[in-house]
Amino acid sequence: MLPYLLVTMLPFLRSCFQQLCNVRTNHDDYPSWRQASLPVSRGGIGLRRSEELALPAFLASIHSVADLVSLLLPNRPAVDVSTALEIWKTNARLTELPSPEFRKSQKAWDLPLCNVSLATLLEVFRDDEVNKARLLAQSRPEAGIWLNALPSAHIGNLLDDDTLKISVGLRLGAKICEPHNCAKCYKPVDCYAHHGLSCSFSAGRHPRHGALNSVVCRAFVSAGIPAKLEPRGTSNTSSRRPDGCTTFAWQRGMCLAWDVTCVDTVAASHVKSTSANAGSAAVQAEERKTSLYSYLVGRYIFAPIAFETMGPWGPSAIAIIKELGKRLRTHSGEVRSHEFLRQRLSIEIQRGNAASVLGTAERADMFTELLFI
Predict the structure, then answer these.
(1) 92-109 burial, b for 16+ CB within 10 Å, e for fewer?
(2) What pLDDT sits at residue 27?
(3) Ordered alpha helix ranges (H), 139-250
(4) Phi/psi zone of residue 93: left (φ > 0), alpha (ψ -120 to 50 degrees), beta?
(5) Using an 8 Å Cβ cutoff, are 34 and 172 in contact?
(6) Burial 67-90 (b: 16+ CB within 10 A, else e)
(7) Tens-digit pLDDT profile for the chain (373 aa)?
(8) Closest Cα to residue 361, out of 154, 124, 191?
(9) How far is the C-alpha of 252 from the C-alpha of 302, rounded, in Å?
(10) DSSP β-bridge partners for residue 189
């Protein structure tokens, strides 16, 4: 009965996923479906397979009830799980079991198996820098924040159908569109639509930049720290201005100035480094911003806030958003303030990605006048 359920459930689950997200992941596109079955923290969507969860669930259950069973049935011999433990060691490629205090947790048994699945996928993309960089980026903790956000239109977290489809497709490396020439620069766009993320005339770059800055500025104000965008008078020698600045002191008697940027993980200029180290493009972007605004040193605390299109954040972005989240929690009393802020930023990145991808195609406006009739 169990093999029959596994055989029938997987196609049904895949069919439901394809119907809901409008993203095709079938046997011909095997790596993307395998990635979808990983947990969000490992770059997947969380559509877990029953056969992969069976062993961790069994081992966690056995260790959870062992004390109670021995108390209720003191003369009954303990259940022999040596075979299951050996299978787990083999599958997890480990020689030691989880620490005794964690053996009651299914997560402790499951994550090592997920790490092996992720490593196997990375091995599949060993010679494919673009997909390797994408998968490494999606396995970063901050890359899947948007998937955990409450999809509510009232708080601005609801993604429209096109944005959801493109966001899921980019995350899984699935086919998004038919090959065509970019409507902006006329360069070829393949079925994975990565060109739109790094196009010189990207339709989503400026809206995303403005949205991210707006979210950061509103977060400062909500934390009781007045701030403004595009401040004037930050330098007497340079016409360049940071994206925003607090009106009152942030730390050490100095105001905080910040500048937001979002770079493409799989752009030709970044893919070599991002396929080796996840988040390296964001790190490089923050270093460039720090050098660019070096004239602020001594008068302001400057914080570069760099994101990548595939999800990773730069170390400075993580640090400043964490500190801002703490101050939001203190000011508002909402213990989840930090997570809500991270979710909103992550969602704005996805919206910018979708706008960039959709902007590569010709869009007819010949019937827009009907909207005014």
Answers:
(1) beeeebbeeeebbebebb
(2) 63
(3) 161-172, 195-198, 205-222
(4) left
(5) no
(6) eeeeeeeeeeeeeeeeebeeebee
(7) 445 455 567 788 888 888 888 888 766 557 888 999 999 999 999 988 888 899 999 999 999 998 888 888 888 777 788 999 999 999 999 999 999 999 999 999 999 999 999 999 999 999 999 999 999 999 999 999 999 999 988 888 999 999 999 999 999 999 999 999 999 899 999 999 999 999 989 889 999 999 999 999 999 999 999 999 988 877 656 678 899 999 999 999 999 999 999 999 999 999 999 999 999 999 999 999 999 999 888 889 999 999 999 999 999 999 999 999 999 999 999 999 999 999 999 999 999 999 999 999 876 555 555 555 5
(8) 191
(9) 13
(10) 180
Q: Does residue 32 contact residue 25 with C-beta atoms inside 8 Å?
A: yes
Q: pTM for this structure? A: 0.90
What crossing angle do the helices spanning 315-332 and 205-222 adopt, rounded to 10°? 40
Query: In this structure, what are the phi and psi dihedrals at residue 265, rounded to the nearest 5 degrees?
Result: -60, -40
Distances (CA, A) of 150 to 31, 193, 282, 312, 334: 28, 27, 26, 21, 16
Q: Distance between CA 242 and CA 303 in Å, rounded?
A: 10
**Beta strands 188-189; 255-263: pairing state:** unpaired
The Cα 297–Cα 42 span in angstroms is 38
Strands 244-246 and 227-229: antiparallel
H helix or E strand, kind and range, residue 83:
helix 82-92
Polymer length of the chain:
373
- Secondary-structure percent of the chain, ordered helix, strand, coil, rounded to 5: 55, 10, 35
From edge to edge, which strands make up the β-sheet containing 300-308?
A: 227-229, 244-246, 255-263, 300-308
The H or E element containing residue 262 is strand 255-263
Query: In this structure, which amino acid lies at residue 49?
Result: R
- Look-up: residue for tokens 């992720």? 118
